[in-house]
């Protein structure tokens, strides 16, 4: 069978075997059920006799076990190997869940293809190539579809097929670059979720010893679904470890999405405790919103939308009043003569600089002043300068920064500076 022995018999967690070679902390075994890191799935954890296994890698076609320390056993000794069942099962659940999610993606997205995969301790990522926009609603649909397949207890099976035959099948998620571990001697290992013809490796939910396998498992079909793979939910070339039945995955929580590259959507999800904790956080947030809004859960979105509309309306009212205040303060000032020009200089308090800039820009179309200067700010003084004459607004800002520090920029007509080390009133006195 193509792939690793661990992938073929993932429920094996304790076995005895002989040591064939040792090089420092590196150990080779006659046979090994430790999964070696491959295709985005991390290596198994566990022990060989009483020595902790830190890593497992495939080197020259053989699994090499990296130990935490040099072992006391010798070549030819028989050793008891134990795999960390909790971590192995986590990886089995996570890997199988990624296949279920991909099957859901095939039903929700257009022209979907597989771009990458990685199992972390807290979350799993699946990279999908699709032109379909994946928004929040789509994430909800993905999560719902995945958890329905988990609930339906679909059997999961794995077996070998000729590579040439699989290449001709449109229903198979097939990527030789990312699933190198699934290929061997012209054959490829396919993992199938659901379908009346699945071999059904499932039936028991616990680990076994020395590779024993249990047959059986019912087939469940989702009515009304777009079954592009016949009655199968997903068929993929894969060299990883998987559970025998989707019910063993447990609840799946979709976390986030991002776009790491052109046409690539990254979906992150969690299984096990991290997923449960995330759901608790989300539920608390919904309950808090329900309580604060004084409404039922189903009415929270509408109440939030109304609150957002009210906030936008208040924000617009506030901005309008701020503009009126700036305009009134400019209107209330008389021009002063400076260097044979009429200048209008005003302080506008701690009103926002962007509002002041908009008002000065508007005022330039209706003023006799050659230069308009508005000074404001709270903790830090800013200056907005407008020019209707030959003098450049940026030149005025440059003069202010040379005298009072800070910096700024703009163009001949409108410029702005900030970070001045003196209050607006002092800058005003220097300009009058």
Automatic annotation (TrEMBL):
Keyword Protein biosynthesis: yes
Coiled coil spans: 304-331
Domain of life per record: Archaea
Matching Pfam families: tRNA-synt_2c (PF01411), tRNA_SAD (PF07973)
Alphabetized InterPro entries for the sequence: Ala-tRNA-synth_IIc_core (IPR018165), Ala-tRNA-synth_IIc_N (IPR018164), Ala-tRNA_ligase (IPR050058), Thr/Ala-tRNA-synth_IIc_edit (IPR018163), Transl_B-barrel_sf (IPR009000), tRNA_SAD (IPR012947)
Assigned protein family: Belongs to the class-II aminoacyl-tRNA synthetase family.
Protein name: Alanyl-transfer RNA synthetases family profile domain-containing protein
């Amino acid at each position: 069978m193509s792939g690793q022995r661990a992938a073929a018999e993932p429920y094996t967690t304790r076995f005895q075997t002989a040591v064939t070679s040792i090089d420092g902390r590196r150990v080779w075994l006659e046979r090994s059920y430790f999964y070696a890191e491959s295709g985005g799935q991390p290596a198994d954890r566990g022990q060989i006799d009483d020595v902790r296994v830190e890593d497992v890698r495939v080197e020259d076609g053989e699994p090499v076990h990296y130990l935490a320390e040099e072992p006391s056993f010798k070549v030819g000794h028989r050793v008891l190997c134990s795999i960390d069942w909790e971590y192995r099962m986590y990886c089995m659940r996570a890997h199988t869940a990624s296949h279920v999610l991909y099957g859901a993606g095939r039903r929700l997205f257009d022209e979907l293809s597989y771009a990458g995969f990685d199992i972390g301790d807290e979350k799993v990522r699946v990279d999908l190539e699709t032109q379909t926009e994946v928004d929040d609603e789509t994430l909800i649909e993905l999560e719902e579809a995945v958890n329905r397949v988990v609930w339906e207890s679909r059997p999961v099976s794995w077996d070998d097929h000729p590579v040439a035959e699989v290449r001709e099948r449109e229903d198979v998620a097939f990527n030789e670059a990312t699933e190198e571990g699934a290929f061997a001697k012209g054959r490829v290992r396919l993992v199938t979720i659901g379908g009346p013809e699945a071999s059904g490796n499932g039936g028991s939910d616990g680990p076994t010893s020395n590779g024993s396998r249990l047959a059986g498992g019912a087939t469940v079909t989702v009515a009304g679904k777009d079954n592009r793979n016949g009655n199968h939910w997903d068929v993929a070339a894969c060299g990883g470890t998987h559970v025998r039945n989707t019910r063993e995955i447990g609840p799946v929580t979709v976390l986030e999405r991002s776009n790491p590259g052109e046409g690539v959507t990254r979906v992150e999800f969690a299984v096990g405790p991290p997923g449960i904790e995330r759901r608790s956080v989300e539920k608390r947030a919904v309950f808090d919103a329900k309580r604060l809004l004084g409404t039922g859960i189903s009415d929270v979105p509408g109440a939030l939308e109304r609150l957002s509309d009210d906030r936008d309306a208040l924000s617009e009212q506030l901005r309008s009043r701020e503009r009126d205040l700036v305009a009134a303060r400019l209107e209330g000032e008389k021009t002063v003569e400076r260097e044979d020009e009429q200048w209008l200089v005003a302080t506008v308090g701690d009103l926002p600089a962007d509002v002041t800039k908009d008002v000065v820009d508007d005022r330039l179309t209706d003023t006799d002043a050659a230069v308009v200067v508005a000074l404001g700010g709270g903790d830090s003084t800013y200056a907005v300068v407008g020019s209707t004459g030959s003098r450049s607004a940026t030149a005025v800002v440059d003069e202010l920064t040379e005298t009072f520090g800070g910096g700024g920029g703009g163009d001949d007509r409108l410029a702005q500076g900030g970070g001045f080390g003196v209050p607006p009133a002092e800058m005003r006195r220097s300009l009058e």
